[in-house]
């Protein structure tokens, strides 16, 4: 029995030695080990709360260069990760992983306040903000706060594109007239009327497209 205990202790010590071998760079604050000095230097930023990597487009800051690289995909519109089931594309692998849950019919996460159910804990957490009124996402430029990161991302367009007219749905426009036209969608107003059949539309472009149906009818007779 004593021999077995000695052997077990030796095995654990050997396993620990294997795990730490090659990791000679040690953080003196939390004793975490790294194989490369550059990784240790990047790790120290967590303790110092520094974010030296700055996005040139929106001034958002990041601790890690890899996080900044992923963030740039939001500005460029690149979406290299594709769902194999529906073909939807994502800029981040983690977003694709969360999306894959939507193809499952199970919703195991329940809101205790309104009994609404969700497929992922992340969506439940975002939903709870509607009840609590918390707005944890802050604009680095004007300090305006948002309950969702997606709304904050849309808001940044105000600072980067010169679009200063913002709708309640967070969509932004360069001109006030464009905002007013957009607001008609929310109000359900249809100001554009077809002079042939009196059908109404909320957009002038939709009215113009509709006119082609009358032209096609004329050609068929």
From TrEMBL:
Keywords attached to this entry: Metal-binding, Methyltransferase, Nucleus, Repeat, Transferase, Zinc, Zinc-finger
Q: Does the keyword Repeat apply?
A: yes
For the keyword Repeat, the answer is yes
Q: Which residues cross the membrane?
A: none
What range(s) does the C2H2-type domain occupy?
Answer: 25-52, 53-80, 81-108, 109-136, 137-164, 165-191, 192-219
Give a single Pfam family match: zf-C2H2
User: Which Gene3D superfamilies does its entry note?
Assistant: Classic Zinc Finger (3.30.160.60)
Q: Which domain of life is it from?
A: Eukaryota
Please list the GO terms describing molecular function.
DNA-binding transcription factor activity, RNA polymerase II-specific; methyltransferase activity; RNA polymerase II cis-regulatory region sequence-specific DNA binding; zinc ion binding
UniProt-listed InterPro entries: Znf_C2H2_sf (IPR036236), Znf_C2H2_type (IPR013087)
Q: Could you give one GO CC term from the UniProt record?
A: chromatin
What Gene Ontology terms for biological process does this UniProt record contain? Answer: methylation
Q: What family name appears in the similarity comment?
A: Belongs to the krueppel C2H2-type zinc-finger protein family.
Q: What protein does this entry describe?
A: Histone-lysine N-methyltransferase PRDM9
Organism field: Stegodyphus mimosarum (African social velvet spider)
């Amino acid at each position: 029995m004593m021999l077995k205990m000695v052997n077990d202790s030796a095995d654990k010590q050997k396993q620990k030695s294997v795990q730490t071998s090659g990791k000679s760079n040690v953080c003196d604050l939390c004793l975490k080990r790294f194989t490369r000095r550059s990784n240790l230097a990047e790790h120290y930023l967590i303790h110092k709360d520094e974010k030296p990597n700055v996005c040139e487009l929106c001034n958002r800051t990041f601790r890690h260069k890899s996080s900044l690289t992923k963030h740039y995909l939001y500005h460029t519109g690149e979406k290299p990760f594709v769902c194999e089931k529906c073909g939807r594309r994502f800029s981040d692998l983690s977003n694709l992983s969360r999306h894959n849950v939507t193809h499952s019919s199970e919703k195991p996460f329940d809101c205790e306040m309104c009994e609404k159910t969700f497929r992922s804990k992340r969506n439940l957490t975002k939903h709870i903000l509607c009840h609590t009124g918390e707005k944890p996402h802050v604009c680095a430029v004007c300090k305006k706060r948002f309950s969702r990161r997606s709304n904050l991302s849309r808001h940044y367009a105000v600072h980067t594109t010169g679009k200063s007219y913002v709708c309640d749905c967070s969509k932004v426009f360069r001109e006030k007239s464009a905002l007013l036209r957009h607001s008609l969608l929310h109000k359900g107003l249809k100001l554009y009327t077809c002079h042939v059949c009196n059908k109404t539309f909320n957009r002038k472009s939709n009215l113009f497209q509709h006119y082609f149906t009358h032209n096609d009818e004329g050609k068929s007779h």
